[in-house]
Design goal:
The complex is a heterotetramer of chains A (about 280), B (about 325), C (about 160) and D (about 350). With about 280 residues, chain A is of the alpha/beta class. Helix content of chain A is about 25%, strand content about 30%. Chain A has nine helices and 15 strands. Chain A has a seven-stranded mixed sheet, with helices on both faces. A six-stranded antiparallel sheet of chain A has the order 4-3-6-1-2-5. In chain A, α8 links the parallel β11 and β12. Chain A is globular. Chain B has two domains: about 270 residues, no CATH class; about 35 residues, no CATH class. By secondary structure, chain D is of the alpha/beta class. Chain D has a seven-stranded mixed sheet with strand order 1-9-8-7-6-2-3. Chain D has a four-stranded antiparallel sheet with strand order 5-4-11-10, with no helix packed on it. Chain D contains twelve helices and eleven strands. Chain D has two domains: about 190 residues, Aspartate Aminotransferase, domain 2 (3-Layer(aba) Sandwich); about 110 residues, no CATH class. Classes of the chains: A alpha/beta (about 280), B alpha/beta (about 325), C alpha/beta (about 160), D alpha/beta (about 350). Chains B and C meet through α7, α9 and α11 of B and α3, α4, β4 and α5 of C.
């Protein structure tokens, strides 16, 4: 009976600061013990609890795809007590990881369909994992057309910039990047994600939509998707809740009878409509 | 008590009729014998639920600070206030949490609340059918007979040492009995505790609070504890640990009681709310006596008092300062 | 405080108990008094850890209890003499608060020498050193404050 | 714990004394302390310390299995080492909890669902639960606040008990429920005779008597019929007088929510798990400041919906055993039974 609360040690291999405000960093981990590495099998959309001894734990989405061997990326914004101290960690420090927890995006449902990804701000982490998973050469064939609409408040706030530019050039997917307000060097599209989505108007025919972003973006994106004809059971949201145990016991992350850490974080709009609107 | 109840009900009906108050806060019969429960009366037909007896123990002014902002502007709240409740209410006005015109105070001169534990000591299975009370006695009618208790010695400690049974500030006053305010006699229990040895005092403090399960009922029942974010719930920084280890529990109680210095009116709501029967009054009452003796100040007597720790005087005594000869 | 004097006192620490004392010094008077004591080489025990605060009025009883909870054996709060306060009335308000805090902590059973208050002006370097000396001896006699420190009473750790 | 054919035998007063004495030798025994203060349960050293009390004990037995504070592991921040050795228990003797009422026994059965059956097994809970045997006493004199019948429990419910004892006037009927219960009885080596029909009748009568004393507040059909309406307006009115303290959740035998926090002294520290309550503001406060349950109305609604609606979908069981502790200890006498009745009548 191993104690589910003991974190697995992992070394920080690389830290990249993602935005100009320097409060979003991506950490690249490698497990110290190999059996942890082999045991950590996850799918895009899942999350893990990052544990700093002496400060606590925080639930963060896994930003890398299982296909990126040798990399385990977590993108963390400095907001709370634990994330503040995580941002003080340097390369070579060891922190703890517990997980993987929660369910992944519905890869089987997405099989053989078009996929529309709508992301906003720094919530693009698990969506990046899904994109990398789908772009992987022997996975790409399983999915039809891939459209990504990703936006942030300002050009500086865009994360994974290098990969965004590469995806824009690649023919495997059509990438739309927007910012709420550009600056003088910004040549691409400007405008809120929901309005950009409306202009592009991807067909909802045989398409699954994955949405993840700040609550205000979701509030305005859902009506657009409905207008485009997406049925609730083919729109998927990844929710954020205060979590402590991650294994459905500490009782705090429930929406109705569903626990976000065990039955989520990915829910279809159909499921969410049945649950009480308390999230 | 029936006269008082009918007077109370007619008053409230009048107030509700000519829209003087939005709604009225009083007491209704609880679901358990010997218990009452706060009740919020809006419509006329609910007014019949209002009661008055020697078990109306909750301090209703604890609801005011969170309730009034939610009401439409200009609605007045009627509140039934015993002597101590009205002092808590006035203290809230002094601390600018409440405006006098938002509240219509229906004062009731109180003859002391009965401590239920002293009545239910030896019921051994008997079910309470009915309760009667008069000036000297409280009579319990059980299915296994009758039990009489003298009123004076089954009062709560805070009611035994009550200094202001009649509200000092009110709009309407219902007289229950002649109770002139007495001067603050230092509570004999506190005086006795002071004589004890230092170590014994600490051990009593530790033993008394070792039962605390940190449910925070003492804080949530106290009208003075209205902070939006209590120090006990701050996470940046977290002042003390979450375990029920004795040092965490003592930290919480020490600081909470210190926050009552010059504000506590000794209504006893914290002692009544505690499920573990911790006698917090042994510590909170000390500050009440200290403040009276040192600064001759009693909180909550008039809305235009100034707050004890909000003012100073140049000739405050400072005998406790370190002096070097 | 010269560096080597620190070495000397910490050397004989292993023999006798050396109390840890936190001193909240008001920036305008007491801290300047402490500075004067140091500049003029007045010797006083190195047990105090000085925390500079804008005024003695800034001290919330929460900080005093937090210091004792974190394992400190004594707390001193020192400010300007009444009347000299840079903020005119900071120490007057503080005086009322300290009177009640001191009486309450004493009443509850914490030795009264553990939490002390004093007025030290910027010119009283000598007096500051004497106060610290007196304070440290008193607390050294009392021994460590073990009954309130975090982790001292482990009721919570049931297996 | 499979349930073989239960064996019933009769014990007279002296047999019962002997039975207890033998139990105390072989096992470490805990029973309700009977005082009205926490911890509410105590270790029984001698026969005289065990006494039967009316109705459920002051504090539930939850905190024997799920202590208010529990060390998950210790660590040293300097060396980043984790020490998870939770130290062997004081002695590997079997622990026997005796004197529980059926409602507390059922509460432990519900906690088993959370910590053993649903997700990954909780190591700490499982370790204690596996070495504990439960002897519950049928309830002969329920309190005015008891309503176990209305939520599917009863004065003679077995639930998680290994052995149920019916205390009659001058004798006891011992009924073993599980295999472990039977072993427990056999280990004491008492050879007891069967139960005469006359004694069975006496037991029936005692149980029916205590059933009549139980207040019929609402029937379980009431609950099923009236699925609690999340958007209903009565929630605001019901929760108006709630003070938002944590008494009802800490005293409830089935409330199991906990918080995980690190405590550090110098470079050494420990990660602890301590009770938490959905009635507290920090329970669901996000780091961004958003709180899905900002006011007491949402929190009270969550507490009641979880126990009566959500738990039906998660575990197929109601998470209330009708012990009445939340009714007794509420400072404003906010009675859960009246709340349920009002909701059931669709007020």
């Amino acid at each position: 009976m191993n104690n589910p609360y003991i974190p697995m040690p992992a070394r920080i291999e690389k830290i990249t600061t993602e935005n100009e405000a320097r409060d979003i960093k991506t950490f690249d981990f490698s497990f110290v013990n190999n059996e942890d590495k082999d045991g950590f099998l996850f799918l895009p959309g899942q999350f893990a609890e990052l544990s700093l001894l002496g400060f606590g734990e925080c639930p963060i989405g896994i930003a890398s795809s299982p296909t990126e061997v040798g990399h385990l990326l977590f993108t963390v914004k400095r907001t709370g007590f634990v994330t503040k101290h995580l941002h003080r960690a340097e390369v070579g420090d060891t922190i703890g990881i517990r997980g993987p927890f929660g369910n992944s995006y519905p890869l089987d449902l997405m099989e053989g369909k078009n996929v529309l990804i709508v992301g906003g701000g720094f919530a693009f982490t698990t969506l990046r994992a899904t994109t990398m998973y789908m772009l992987e050469h022997n996975n790409r064939g399983r999915f039809k057309e891939l459209t990504i609409v990703y936006g942030a408040r300002s050009p500086g706030e865009l994360i994974y910039k290098q990969e965004l530019w590469d995806w824009e050039k690649s023919t495997d997917l059509n990438m739309f990047i927007t910012v709420d307000k550009g600056d003088e060097r910004w040549k691409r599209r400007e405008g809120f994600v929901p309005t950009v989505l409306e202009d592009i108007a991807p067909s909802s025919q045989d398409t699954v939509a994955l949405v993840c972003g700040p609550p205000v973006m979701i509030k305005f994106t859902l009506p657009v998707l409905q207008k485009l004809g997406f049925p609730p059971e083919r729109i998927f949201l990844s929710l954020e809740m205060r979590m402590k145990c991650g294994i459905g016991m500490c009782g705090r992350c429930n929406i109705g009878h569903k626990y976000v850490c065990v039955d989520g974080p990915v829910f279809s709009c159909a499921q969410l409509d049945e649950l009480p609107q308390e999230y | 008590m029936k006269r008082v109840e009918s007077e109370l009900i007619t008053n409230v009906e009048e107030l509700l009729e000519d829209k003087k108050i939005g709604f009225f806060m009083g007491y209704e019969n609880g679901s358990l014998p010997l218990r009452t429960s706060p009740c919020f009366v809006k419509e006329k037909e609910d007014v019949q639920r209002l009661v008055w007896n020697c078990f109306c123990t909750n301090n209703l002014s604890v609801y005011l600070v969170s309730l009034i902002p939610e009401l439409p502007a200009g609605t007045k709240v009627g509140i039934l206030c015993k002597g101590c409740d009205s002092r808590s209410l006035v203290n809230l006005i002094v601390e600018k949490q409440l405006k006098r015109e938002d509240v219509l105070i229906m004062g009731i001169s109180c003859s002391g609340m009965i401590n239920i534990d002293k009545l239910t000591g030896n019921l051994d299975g008997g079910r309470i059918l009915e309760v009667e009370e008069n000036e000297e006695e409280v009579i319990l009618k059980l299915d296994t007979g009758e039990q009489r208790f003298s009123r004076k010695d089954s009062l709560y400690e805070s009611c035994k040492n009550c200094t202001h049974p009649t509200p000092s500030v009110y709009d309407i006053l219902i007289r229950v009995g002649e109770h002139a305010p007495k001067s603050v006699c230092p509570d004999p229990m506190i005086a006795k505790f002071r004589q004890k040895e230092r170590l014994e005092r600490w051990q009593i403090f530790e033993r008394e609070l070792s039962r605390c399960v940190r449910c925070y009922a003492c804080r949530n029942a106290c009208p003075n504890c209205y902070c939006k974010e209590c120090f006990a719930e701050q996470t940046k920084p977290r002042w003390f640990g979450l375990s029920n280890e004795l040092s965490d529990v003592l930290f919480y109680h020490l600081v909470r009681i210190l926050h009552q210095a010059g504000r506590c009116v000794d209504c006893g709501a914290c002692v009544r709310a505690c499920p573990e029967k911790v006698d917090l009054r042994l510590f909170t009452r000390m500050l009440v006596d200290e403040v009276k003796e040192r600064f001759d100040y009693e909180p909550g007597l008039s809305p235009n008092d100034s707050h004890l720790l909000g003012v100073f005087s140049t000739d405050d005594t400072q005998e406790f300062m370190v002096e070097v000869d | 405080m010269k560096h080597e004097s620190n070495e000397r006192t910490s050397f004989d620490k292993s023999k006798s108990f050396e109390p840890k004392i936190v001193a909240f010094l008001c920036n305008w008077c007491s801290y300047a008094g402490a500075d004067l004591a140091g500049v003029s080489r007045f010797q006083y025990p190195a047990n105090i850890r000085i925390i500079k605060v804008p005024c003695s009025g800034r001290i919330n009883p929460l900080y005093i209890v937090k210091a004792l909870y974190n394992g400190v054996d004594g707390v001193l709060v020192s400010g300007c003499h009444p009347g000299d306060c840079h903020y005119i009335s900071g120490n007057y308000f503080a005086r009322r608060k300290f009177a009640l805090v001191k009486k309450f902590l004493e009443y509850v059973g914490i030795e009264s020498e553990r939490v002390q208050f004093s007025w030290v002006s910027a010119a009283e370097g000598v007096r500051f050193a004497q106060i610290i000396d007196k304070l440290t001896n008193e607390i050294r006699k009392l021994g460590p404050l073990t009954y309130f420190r975090k982790g001292s009473t482990c009721k919570g750790d049931q297996t | 714990m499979e349930r073989p054919m239960s064996k019933e035998c009769l014990m007279y007063k002296e047999d019962f004394e002997e039975f207890l004495a033998r139990l105390i030798e072989g096992h470490s025994i805990f029973c309700p302390s009977g005082e009205d203060i926490s911890p509410g349960i105590k270790k029984v050293a001698g026969r005289e310390q065990f006494a039967l009390h009316r109705g459920p004990s002051h504090f539930s037995f939850k905190h024997y299995f799920l202590p208010q504070t529990e060390r998950l592991f210790s660590f040293d921040m300097a060396s980043n080492k984790i020490d998870a050795s939770n130290g062997e228990l004081d002695d590997n003797k079997l622990v026997v909890l005796i004197g529980l009422r059926p409602c507390d026994a059922m509460a432990i059965e519900l906690l088993d669902q959370v910590f053993l059956q649903r997700g990954p097994e909780d190591v700490f809970y499982a370790r204690r639960r596996r070495r504990t045997r439960i002897i519950s006493f049928a309830c002969s004199e329920p309190r005015t606040t008891c309503f176990c019948e209305s939520v599917g429990c009863g004065p003679d419910a077995a639930a998680s008990a290994d052995m149920v004892i019916f205390a009659l006037k001058d004798s006891y009927i011992v009924k073993t429920i599980t295999q472990c219960g039977e072993e427990l009885l056999n280990n004491t080596g008492m050879n007891l005779d069967g139960v005469s029909t006359e004694k069975l009748g006496e037991r029936e009568q005692m149980i029916n008597e205590s059933r009549d004393r139980l207040e019929k507040v609402f029937t379980s059909e009431d609950l099923n019929g009236k699925i609690m309406d999340f958007e209903a307006s009565y929630w605001k009115q019901i929760c108006q007088k709630c003070l938002g303290c944590g008494i009802c959740t800490y005293f409830c035998p089935t409330c199991h929510c906990f918080d995980i926090v690190d405590e550090v002294a110098g470079s050494k520290g420990r990660r602890i798990r301590s009770w938490d309550s959905c009635m507290y503001p920090l329970f669901t406060l996000h780091a961004s400041g958003h709180n899905p349950r900002p006011t007491r109305k949402e929190r009270m609604r969550q507490r009641i919906m979880h126990k009566f609606v959500y738990s039906m979908e998660q575990y197929g069981r109601r998470f209330c055993v009708g012990c009445g502790r939340c009714v007794i200890h509420c400072p404003v006498n906010l009675d859960l039974r009246l709340v349920i009745k009002e909701i059931a009548e669709g007020k």
